[in-house]
Amino acid sequence: MIRCIAIDLDDTLLRSDLTISPEDKSAIRRAIKEGIKVLLASGRMVQSMRPYVRELGLDVPVIAYNGAIIQEAISGKILYHRPVPPEEARRLVPIFREAEIHLNAYINDELYMDELTEWGQKYAANAGVTPHPVGDLCRYLEEPSHKLLAVGEAERIDWIQERLRNEFGDRLQFVKSKPTYLEILAPEVSKGAALRELAAGWGLNRNEVMAIGDAPNDVSMVAWAGAGVAIGNGVPEVKEKAVLVVADHDHNGVAEALDKLVFKQ
After folding, report:
1. What is the 3-state secondary structure (H, E, C) of the chain?
2. For 242-262, how does the pLDDT look when each residue is reduced to its tens digit (9 = 90+)?
3. Do 184 and 147 contact (CB within 8 A), yes or no?
4. How many of the other CB atoms lie within 10 Å of CB of 185?
5. b/e per residue, 241-250, with b = 16+ CB within 10 A?
6. CB 145 within 8 Å of CB 186
7. What are the structural domains, with CATH classification, of the chain?
8. Helices 253-261 and 22-33: crossing angle, nearest 10°?
9. Distance between CA atoms of 57 and 30, rounded to whole angstroms?
10. How far is it, in rounded angstroms, from Cα 5 to Cα 212?
11. Is residue 11 within 8 Å of 258, Cβ to Cβ?
12. What confidence score (pLDDT) does residue 265 get?
């Protein structure tokens, strides 16, 4: 029996226009009424997730920053935090400057960057947050970052991902959440690890958990959950780990997943 559902936001629950369909919203509200814990699990900042938490009427914590944080979205209380160490973050800044690839850093749920580039503007608008261009990002990396994020052309992101994996080894993780987004995370951070931690705190085993996602950063939670679901527009790696593949994010895939695996219709 499914007692907990973790849902990715971008390109999973959110349609191309960044809204939630009435059908998906109705299915989520039905699940909540039936006593199922429904939570959002995203690479986004907590402040960027909060409007959707309110819209859906969720009363459980969110998994944010790709699993680096479990936080109560409304109160702001942090339950779990695995940040990028400052010394590692500072090593990254000159690498991205030299490569001319935009880099975001996230400290205390705020967005920082060297300069407000076109990529930075586009990202902030999509996330619905205010960016802080600070001139020299290294000066703001004296305390841990929830994560860092490189944003750029897909080919450049592929190139820098391979370079950084070779250079940093297992000291950091470099995972794509979109073809143009490279997430930089502390070791062992993932949505799957955070979901496992949260479920354990609720006394749930993996067979009582559903996870729905689309991107490489969703593989860990889709693979761990007993009912892992890939949205139709998802990448092959997610579909390979899923027990069910549903319609895409523009055609009520989340509602279809709940109908088939939760409501048994």
Report:
1. CCCEEEECCECCCECCCCCCCHHHHHHHHHHHHCCCEEEEECCCCHHHHHHHHHHHCCCCCEEEHHHCEEECCCCCCEEEECCECHHHHHHHHHHHHHHCCEEEEEECCEEEECCCCHHHHHHHHHHCCCEEECCCHHHHCCCCECCEEEECCHHHHHHHHHHHHHHHHHHCEEEEEECCEEEEECCCCCHHHHHHHHHHHCCCCHHHEEEEECCHHHHHHHHHCCEEEECCCCCHHHHHHCCEECCCCCCCHHHHHHHHHCCCC
2. 999 999 999 999 999 999 999
3. yes
4. 25
5. bbebbbebbe
6. no
7. 4-81+189-261 (3.40.50.1000), 86-185 (3.30.1240.10)
8. 30
9. 12
10. 8
11. no
12. 53
Q: How do residues 60-97 score in pLDDT, each as one tens digit? A: 999 999 999 999 988 889 999 999 999 999 999 999 99
Do residues 208 and 198 touch, judged by C-beta distance below 8 A?
no
Assigned token pair, 199: 């479920």
Structure tokens belonging to residue 13: 């629950």
State the Cα–Cα distance between residues 147 and 91, nearest whole angstrom: 14
Provide CB contacts within 8 A for 31, sequence distance 6+. 5, 38, 258, 262
